Amino acid sequence: MKERRSFRRTTVWRNAKIILSHRSPVVSCTVKDLTGHGACLSVASTYRLPEEFELTFEHGRDRRRCYVKWRTHNRLGVSFDAAAEQPAEPEASAAAAK
Description:
The protein has a single domain, classed as Thrombin, subunit H (Beta Barrel), CATH 2.40.10.220. The protein is 12% helix and 46% strand. A hairpin with a 7-residue loop joins strand 1 and strand 2 (27-34). The protein has 98 residues and is mainly β. It has 2 helices and 6 strands; from the N terminus they run E-E-E-E-E-E-H-H.
């Protein structure tokens, strides 16, 4: 089968939490594989999980905005928000400081 991914993923098997909103409980999951651009998550059920959420792992040290690209009954393929990963533009920071 031909690989369709743009980036090679690394198998990691890390525990993580899906954060739906500040009033909702978190959903435990396992990060199966990971790149800087996305991940495959294993969950008990994808039923009622939204198309957009935050993912936290590394004991809360890393938090990423995610967008669901595909789903099965117990797995999600997500992409990370690229804008959240970009450092602020030096010119924009300088203009804001004035």
